[in-house]
Design a protein that fits this description.
mainly alpha; phospholipid biosynthesis; membrane; single chain; transmembrane; Four Helix Bundle (Hemerythrin (Met), subunit A); CDP-OH_PTrfase_TM_dom; Phosphatidylglycerol_P_synth; two-stranded antiparallel ribbon; 192 residues
């Protein structure tokens, strides 16, 4: 197994650690930040999430730079991304930091696009992610991190950065999903 795939696997192995931190009854205290309190366990979970999210860029860059792109990596990388993001969003609902309806729309879009990609793959067609999809992912990751950090460092001024980026992520998620299906509808139409 090459280095990029090992990096991707490390991201997958961090997901249970991230989940356990946020679901076990751990009380490591709080930090007073601006007008809110940030639980230390949420901060640690946010750092793990940020690190795991960063490995996505690292493994892709390394694989392309050293010509180590593999079919295993093409499978593991998007799966790891979706598992990490879905786990984080679901936990944010449980923590009362994100509305369930937004998370349902975001995760539903991911399932729908993955389904379209599977249909395309069955036809021998590779559907690449567009720029809007990359922006969608960026805003999803930033919103998750900010919500886990209870808006730190923006909490000093009482600015709800997490919620704002979450709504931007929602808009980009819906618009990019519609755009993706419109541009690739021929795959569904022509599939056997």
């Amino acid at each position: 197994m090459n280095i990029p795939n090992r990096i991707t696997l490390s991201r997958i192995f961090l997901i249970p650690v991230f989940i356990l931190l946020l679901t076990l009854p751990l009380d490591w205290g709080f930090w007073a930040i601006g007008t809110t309190e940030l639980p230390v366990v949420d901060f640690v979970a946010a750092m793990i999430f940020i690190f795991a999210s960063g490995t996505d860029w690292v493994d892709g860059y390394y694989a392309r730079k050293h010509n180590l792109v593999t079919n295993l990596g093409k499978f593991l990388d998007p799966m790891a991304d979706k598992l990490l993001v879905a786990a984080a969003f679901i936990l944010l609902i449980e923590m009362n930091l994100a509305p369930a309806w937004i998370v349902i729309l975001i995760i539903s879009r991911e399932f729908a696009v993955t389904g379209l990609r599977l249909v395309a793959a069955g036809e021998g067609i590779v559907l690449a992610a567009g720029k809007m999809g990359k922006w969608k992912t960026t805003f999803q990751l930033v919103s998750i991190a900010l919500l886990l950090l209870h808006d730190f460092p923006f909490s000093y001024i009482g600015f709800p950065a997490g919620k704002i980026t979450l709504y931007i992520a929602l808009i980009l998620t819906v618009v990019s999903g519609i755009d993706y299906f419109v541009k690739n509808w021929h795959v569904m139409r022509d599939s056997k």
